[in-house]
Design brief:
Layout (H helix, E strand, L loop, with lengths): L9 E4 L5 H12 L3 E6 L2 H11 L3 E5 L5 H10 L9 E4 L15 H29 L2 E6 L12 H21 L4 E8 L6 H5 L4 H5 L10 H12 L9 E4 L15
Parallel strand pairs: 1-2, 1-4, 2-3, 4-5, 5-6, 6-7
This protein binds NADPH dihydro-nicotinamide-adenine-dinucleotide phosphate and 2-hydroxyethylsulfonic acid (8X3).
Amino acid sequence: MERADPKSLTVLVTGATSGFGAAIARRFAAEGAKVIATGRRRERLAALKKELGARCHAVALDVRDRKAVEALPRSLPNGFAAVDVVVANAGLARGLEPAPQADLDDWDAMIATNVAGLAYTVRAFLPGMVERDRGHVVVLGSVAADFPYPGGNCYGATKAFALQFAQNLRADLLGSNVRVTDVEPGLAETEFSLVRFRGDAEKAKAPYRGIDALTAEDVAEAVFWACTLPRRVNVNRLQMMPVMQACGPFAFKRR
Ligand code: NDP
Ligand code: 8X3
């Protein structure tokens, strides 16, 4: 099977300072790809750049900042400007309260990052990829897009946006050689829960207790696989869960 050569790829990853994004940056860099690592935490970006060396270009970026995201493609240095793979990974969950008690600031944060930030990121790089007739958009969705759970409310809805956006992009990009994949992981142990529970380490540990959860490296492997398949292949959706996770039954409130 004739796979895409990772050495020929320039890969941009949002949210590369932690979790999936950091693992995806490392996975591609290990195979010789050039990586543009972005995120807000500068010290973590500097550490990643030091670790990955000259094949890594690091840019401090808040994906909610539309102007900064729009300006990013033109600001990239020679050798990093022709981006082949955009991994729109930056995102977060905030809170797990039922909708009537949820904090609207949490909803704003999730919509601004997971919906608007993701759309800005993808839109910024589409024209270049279409012009070069070569590219791959990977968005980080979630099983939360498909399976509602108590307290998932706005978070699940933002991930449904990622899925639907990706599928609609496929319709617009038909006729080009630009691929689009929605990656939908289930429970994975990263800093995700720490962010969701605002730094409460005890609460953050609870979802993973007794579960062999997905790792960031598992998700990075799936992204790498989808991006290095022969160019004729488009993985539309890639849903993955720990073996120890499954979908629950319907819920009933009996009278
Ligand atoms: P982490 O919290 O470990 O990583 C999140 C990353 O997103 C960080 O690098 C963070 O960087 C970045 N980020 C957050 N907000 C912004 C912003 N405004 N601008 C730029 N970067 C931002 O979580 P995960 O690695 O687990 O999550 C990555 C993605 O995967 C998210 O979209 C998440 O919703 C999704 N996901 C996670 C699952 C899980 O169980 N862990 C399962 C399914 C999907 P910084 O703070 O430096 O900006
Ligand atoms: C993250 C997975 O189940 O915590 O998207 O929402 S879950």
